[in-house]
UniProtKB/TrEMBL annotation:
This is Nitrogenase (Molybdenum-iron)-specific transcriptional regulator NifA. It comes from the Bacteria. The keyword Lyase does not apply. Keywords: ATP-binding, DNA-binding, Nucleotide-binding, Transcription, Transcription regulation. Residues 157-382 form the Sigma-54 factor interaction domain. The keyword Iron-sulfur does not apply. InterPro entries: AAA+_ATPase (IPR003593), AAA_lid_NorR (IPR058031), FHA_dom (IPR000253), Homeodomain-like_sf (IPR009057), P-loop_NTPase (IPR027417), Sigma_54_int (IPR002078), Sigma_54_int_dom_ATP-bd_1 (IPR025662), Sigma_54_int_dom_ATP-bd_2 (IPR025943).
Length: 474
């Protein structure tokens, strides 16, 4: 784009200047500019963002409304304090046919994609140079705000914390649809409960709900478990068998621990999700599939994709609605309600929980999450019933800081150094196991938290036979 040289171009600039100084409404000014500057330029998107790429205010952004002024003076909409920017450098006017940029007689000029202009159209993606400061125009993304649910439960799933009510708000809207849902989170967080709650609230609630645990099925049989097989397809296949996608016709298939699905089976699952067609193992007939898929995993699938252990296209096909279920330690406000619910479900409705016991439950980190809480409560209920108590007074909480009584059994025939080495090793093993567990085996993340050398942690994990993702790869 170049500066206007013809009389007609000059009149356009002068008219635009008059429109700017006129007391008419901004919408009238926009109409005037739109009439004169007709062309084939696509209209500006519903929202456009001016992002500062260089200079003192790098990273600053401003939404372009009706009119955006740029300059060094404080009365500008976007203030740039750089030396090459004039006090009132330029303005951007929004019109139905796009964005109009006008230089306000600046000292160092205004450029679009390297061309100096007095007035011109600018499209999203273009780079505007104000003096020596670069700005880029980007479309803003329209986002749908999903408010937290007003309920403290979604089916059998319980949670009054903000994190859980936010999840419930999403699932209440998604459950009646056929959207594929991916539930991510640590083991024991209740992903299976949420999956059943989604099915119960869906249009497929009167149809089958089949669970396939991808981590529990033998590697050689997982494909048959999903898609079935024909007689003689492999050794031991003495008769034809239907798979989950066939048995659950019209219903829902819950793929638990989807992160454990073998890489060579992943393309076949992707085909079912995309085409809704599959074949039994050893079969030639193409079968139609009408099921909804809900998947769950304790792995970080994006990390698995980056490591080449999980197909990227399958991840995006599964994560149509990704939901990350928080660990129990991140939603401690839910513990009292969970405790009362579990007491009733486990036959301990008549028992009470003293304040000190509830405080101990709320203070624990719960590495096993809700599953660990349920196990401890069930054990406590049995103990209370066996002793005739009406209260749950004794709850044994496993802790990284607690040590078995037998761990400090001293032997007189061993020296101080030998005794200390024995318990130092046990402490080291327990600590490394706990630390890696907090980070799903990620050596680097665990080392950063413990403020120790990554290589040293790797060697410690290897010495004690503990599994870490990076340790396995090394």
């Amino acid at each position: 784009m170049t500066e206007p040289k013809s009389p007609e171009d000059s009149r356009v600039v002068e008219s635009a200047d008059e429109a700017r100084r006129s007391p008419r409404s901004s919408s009238e000014g926009h109409d005037e500019i739109a009439t004169r500057a007709g062309g084939s330029v696509a209209s500006a998107p519903a929202g456009t963002l001016a992002l500062v790429l260089t200079g003192n205010h790098k990273g600053t952004s401003k939404v372009v409304g009706g009119r955006l002024t740029i300059g060094k003076a404080a009365d500008n909409d976007l203030v740039l304090s750089d030396d090459t920017v004039s006090r009132h450098h330029c303005e951007i006017v929004r019109a139905p046919d796009g964005l109009h940029v006008r230089d306000l007689d600046s000292t160092n000029g205004t450029k679009i994609d390297g061309t100096r202009i007095r007035e011109a159209m600018v499209q999203t993606g273009s780079v505007l140079k104000v003096g020596e400061v670069e700005l880029q125009f980007k479309p803003t993304v329209a986002r749908v705000e999903v408010l937290p649910s007003e309920k403290s439960n979604f089916g059998p799933a319980i949670g009054q914390s903000f994190a859980m009510r936010t999840i419930f708000g999403v699932l209440e809207r998604i459950a009646p649809t056929d959207a594929t849902v991916l539930l991510e989170g640590e083991t024991g967080t209740g992903k299976d409960v949420l999956a059943r709650a989604i099915w119960s609230a869906s249009q497929r609630a009167n149809k089958p709900f089949l669970v396939v645990d991808c981590g529990a099925v033998t590697y050689s049989l997982i494909e048959s478990e999903l898609f079935g097989h024909e007689r003689g397809a492999f050794t031991g296949a003495v008769s034809a068998r239907q798979g989950a996608f066939e048995l659950a016709e019209g219903g829902t298939v819950f793929l638990d621990e989807i992160g454990e699905l073998p890489v060579d089976v992943q393309p076949k699952l992707l085909r079912v999700l995309e085409t809704r067609e599959f074949r039994r193992v050893g079969g030639n007939k193409t079968l139609q599939s009408n099921v909804r898929v809900i998947a769950a995993t304790k792995r970080d699938l994006q990390r698995e994709v980056a490591a080449g252990k999980f197909r990227e296209d399958l991840y995006f096909r599964l994560a149509v609605v990704p939901v990350t279920v928080p660990p129990l330690r991140a939603r401690r406000d839910d513990i009292p309600a969970l405790v009362q619910h579990m007491l009733k479900a486990s036959g301990g409705a008549g028992l009470t929980v003293p304040p000190e016991t509830m405080q101990a439950l709320a203070a624990h980190d719960w590495p096993g999450n809700i599953r660990e809480l349920r196990n401890i409560l069930e054990r406590s209920i049995y103990m209370a019933q066996a002793t005739g108590s009406t209260e749950i007074n004794m709850v044994t909480l496993p802790s990284a800081q607690s040590t078995d009584i037998t761990a400090f059994h001293f032997e007189p025939e061993k020296s101080y150094r030998e005794t200390r080495a024995k318990y130092d090793g046990e402490f080291e093993r327990r600590y490394v196991k706990w630390l890696l567990g907090r980070h799903n085996g990620n050596i680097s993340a665990a080392a950063r938290e413990a403020k120790m050398d990554r290589k040293h942690l790797h060697d410690m994990a290897k010495k004690h036979g503990l599994r870490g993702h990076e340790a396995e790869e090394s």
